[in-house]
Structures are given as C-alpha cells and as structure tokens.
C-alpha cells in the first residue's frame, strides 16, 4: 500500500447502480447508508448523470464572478424550495465549508463574537466547523481551535437560554444529530433556539447537511418544527454524489456577509448535477416516500428486534438502532454475511441513511439481516 494514510474497509467497491454497490469480485451489496447520505437518488441516477455529462461538454468551469445560467438556476431553485426567507445561496464544495461560511457570516452580520454549539454535535473538520464539533478525538491533535465556543447539552432549553447573550454571534445545531447518535430535537427546543437568538441579535444556524433533502420525511427537517433559521447549510446528497455544499441565508445575513469566496463555488457541472438532483427529489415527492418507508422501517424493526436492543429512533430514512457495544461487530457482520452496508454513529448505534428511493422489499431485507445479526 502506498500513499493512502486513512482507514479503509476490506471491500473494494468498483461499481454502483441504484441502491446496489458491486465489489471487485462481483459481489453485490445493498447500500443502506447511501454512501454517507451522498446518493439520495441511488448510484448512477440517469437524470443526474445526463445533466452532468451535458454540462461537462458545454462548459466545465467559468470563474464565479461571471453569471452563469446553470448556477443562477441553482440559486433560484434552492430559494424556491427552502423554508421562507432563506433566499440567498452561497455555494461551496462540502458540508464543512458550508458551515465555515455560516460562522463567518454570523460574525460579520451580528455584533457578537461567541458561538454556541451542542454536545455530541458534528459540523465538519475545517478549523471553524471543527471548533463547533463536540468529540475530542476529532479535535485534540489540532488544538487550539476557536476558543469562544460554549457547548450546551442538546435538547436542553434552559441551558441554551443561559448560554446565549448579546455577545453571541451564532448558535449552530443539527435538527437531528447524525454523527452524535441519531438524536432528534423536540419542536419546543428548536422554537426556543429561534426565540433566544432573535432576542439577542444572534444568528441561528441549522446544519441540515445530513437531515436535509428529504431524508427525514420533509425536504428540510426544520420544516417539521415550523422553525426557520437565519442560515441553513446543506451538502452531502445535494448533487447526488458530486462535491457540493451551500449556505442558505436570510436577507439580513446576505446584506452584511463580509468578504468570502471560493474558486470552485457553484461551478457549472456541479450546479447542473444539483439542479437535476433537487428537481428529481421534488418532482417524485421523495420526501413523502422517505416518510412512508421510514415508518415501515421503524415499525418492522420494533417488531423484529425491539426487545433485543436499547432503542430504535429517528425520523424518515434517518434511523438509528442503539445496540450497545456490539455496533462495530454488527456492521461488519451485516456487510460480510448479509451484503448490507450500514453506518456507525458513535460506538453503540447502527445508523441507516438509505437512498430515498428504497423499496419495501429492501426494507424487509435489512430488517431480516439485522434480526439475524443481533
Ligand atoms: C457530514 C456532515 C458535515 C461535514 O460535511 P463534509 O462534506 O464531510 O465536510 C457537517 N455536518 C453534518 C451534520 C454532517 O453530517
């Protein structure tokens, strides 16, 4: 082995089609993590592939200060499908960059400097976003990070009210924590976050990098609580597997966002892929399908393994099974004995983020595989 210093799994993946991944020996796997939620439409979706190919031939790149119709289309599309008033888009290349931009915009548009984040949060791995991330294993080798950050217990309204004051530039949170174990916030927590930031002139940032694009049964998770943040970040599945991120902002943020840019931000090829992805998700009502399949998945899991595990939780097709210490072993067995690829969420949770297109029989396959594994 040369060159690659990161952990790799013992399965070499060479092809993908829909919910299936194929390894170098021809074995097929059910991709029940959608490759970290990055392929909401499944692998190799035709509408996305052809939009991307066409744009690659027409114009691969143009510097971002020239208007480009494909990028303009993406701005308009995101504004149209985002919760009301999140009308301004800053496009970038990943989730951490989308959060990084949100943090910079919060500093610029408010009078505050401090940030409030939540325990168990995951917001990315660049210095700013990493400073908002909870787990010390991700941070300890790179400290010092931003020091004006207070972590509060997730879903604890009083702690949040105490932490936010007029020095606060922004409060950042996931509407459902993903990496932290699939922890949904209560509606009243998100409402409190909205009130307390508004009262103190701070920006409320929802990180929907994992929860967004239909995964939780609505296009954005925050819609279910009826709470609109000042900024919302999206990435992962936005271009169905190609690298993209976006920070959606209200006008008061956009007006005073400072000076921020990135060379590849909103490139035409990625924008074309994102346009096709968003169109497909909306036109085929995949959030509705995710809600239905998610209910089925949780109901069937409760029936088959509910008594053997500590908890089954989540929304839509963002589901965690709290299995205790055996999560790593369970994931390995699922992959090697049942050809089902799921994801960890910490050391104790088996996390499922399948493509939004999954069928009832695929749900059943996974329920049976899990029930035999546990
Ligand atoms: C994956 C993730 C990120 C980071 O996205 P990258 O594209 O890996 O930088 C940020 N926030 C949440 C909630 C995520 O799930």
Description:
With 374 residues, this protein is an alpha/beta fold. The protein has two domains: 13-44 and 285-373, Aspartate Aminotransferase, domain 1, CATH 3.90.1150; 46-283, Type I PLP-dependent aspartate aminotransferase-like (Major domain) (Aspartate Aminotransferase, domain 2, 3-Layer(aba) Sandwich), CATH 3.40.640. Helices cover 38% and strands 19% of the residues. The chain has helices spanning 34-37, 46-58, 69-81, 95-109, 127-131, 136-139, 157-163, 187-200, 251-254, 268-283, 286-305, 327-338, 360-373; strands at residues 13-17, 20-23, 28-31, 88-92, 114-118, 149-152, 168-173, 176-177, 183-184, 203-207, 231-234, 245-249, 311-315, 318-322, 340-341, 343-345, 349-352. The chain has a seven-stranded mixed β-sheet with strand order 4-12-11-10-7-5-6, sandwiched between helices. Strands 1-2-3-15 form a four-stranded mixed β-sheet. Pyridoxal-5'-phosphate binds next to helix 4.
Overview in brief:
With 374 residues, the protein is an alpha/beta fold.
Looking at CATH, the homologous superfamily of the largest domain is: Type I PLP-dependent aspartate aminotransferase-like (Major domain)
Rg (CA only): 20 Å
Globally, the shape reads globular
Distance between the termini: 34 Å
**Which ranges are low-confidence, i.e. pLDDT below 50, for 5 or more consecutive residues?**
none
The computed structural class is: alpha/beta
